[in-house]
Design a protein that fits this description.
Adenylate kinase, 9 helices, about 210 residues, EC 2.7.4.3, 8 strands, zinc, globular, Rossmann fold, binds adenosine monophosphate, alpha/beta
């Protein structure tokens, strides 16, 4: 099964992607994680992507389309995958169609902008393993230290309040039109993001199984 998770940055796509991937035993592919890893390692891809990412802009379509194409050609994608953070523009969705990728369902997680602001500005991530925390809703046991691996937890550069606003604008302008794109194909399912993540997860799994 090939699934797409749509939604604003901070809507919880990553968390839901993990749940789906555990349930269906298919990989979750996050273009954001692939790009962050490339930036951390200083690869050619990372050098191309860094500035766009830190300023809250989208990395150019041809760059992300190329990396996604390579990723889904890998062996572990044979039985399907969950795309988290791709496509983010109409040309990216069109590129999937051109590649012949058949999408079974597009799950759009809806969260209001004000809630997104709160979630992202309080988010902290582990520098080493990427585990995600929140200063109010999901603090690590020891402040600044990852519960899972003991790494340092930090605020992502693009989670600073001004950049969050830019990312939300980019989302509304460039990514939200994808709802229309996929609603025309009859594949779009809307999940209202809930305050308690467990409740959102229950709705997501219901949407996957429907
Ligand atoms: P994310 O972790 O999904 O919020 O992605 C972090 C950043 O990576 C985004 O703000 C973009 O700069 C970049 N990025 C991730 N996925 C894409 C994509 N599909 N198209 C363009 N840029 C992307």
């Amino acid at each position: 099964m090939n699934l797409i998770l749509l939604g604003a940055p901070g809507a919880g796509k990553g968390t839901q992607a993990e749940v789906i991937c555990d349930t269906l035993k298919i990989p979750a592919i996050s273009t954001g994680n692939i790009l962050r890893e490339a930036v951390k390692n200083g690869t050619e891809l990372g050098l191309k992507a860094k500035e766009y990412m830190e300023s809250g802009n989208l990395v150019p379509d041809e760059v992300v389309i190329g990396l996604l194409k390579e990723r889904i050609a890998q062996d572990d994608c044979k039985n399907g995958y969950v795309l988290d953070g791709f496509p983010r523009t109409v040309p990216q969705a069109e590129a999937l169609d051109v590649m012949g990728v058949v999408i079974d369902k597009v799950i759009d997680i809806e969260v209001a902008d004000e809630a997104i602001q709160k979630r992202l500005s309080g988010r902290r991530v582990c520098e080493d393993c990427g585990a995600s925390y929140h200063v109010d809703y999901k603090p690590s046991a020891v402040e600044g230290k990852c519960d899972k691996c003991g790494g340092k937890t930090v605020q992502r550069k693009d989670d600073h309040p001004d950049t969050i606003k830019d990312r939300l604008n980019v989302y509304h302008e460039q990514t939200e039109p994808l709802k229309d794109y996929y609603s025309k194909t009859g594949k779009l399912v809307i999940v209202e993001g809930q305050e308690d993540v467990k409740d959102t997860t229950a709705l997501t799994l219901k949407a996957v199984e429907a």
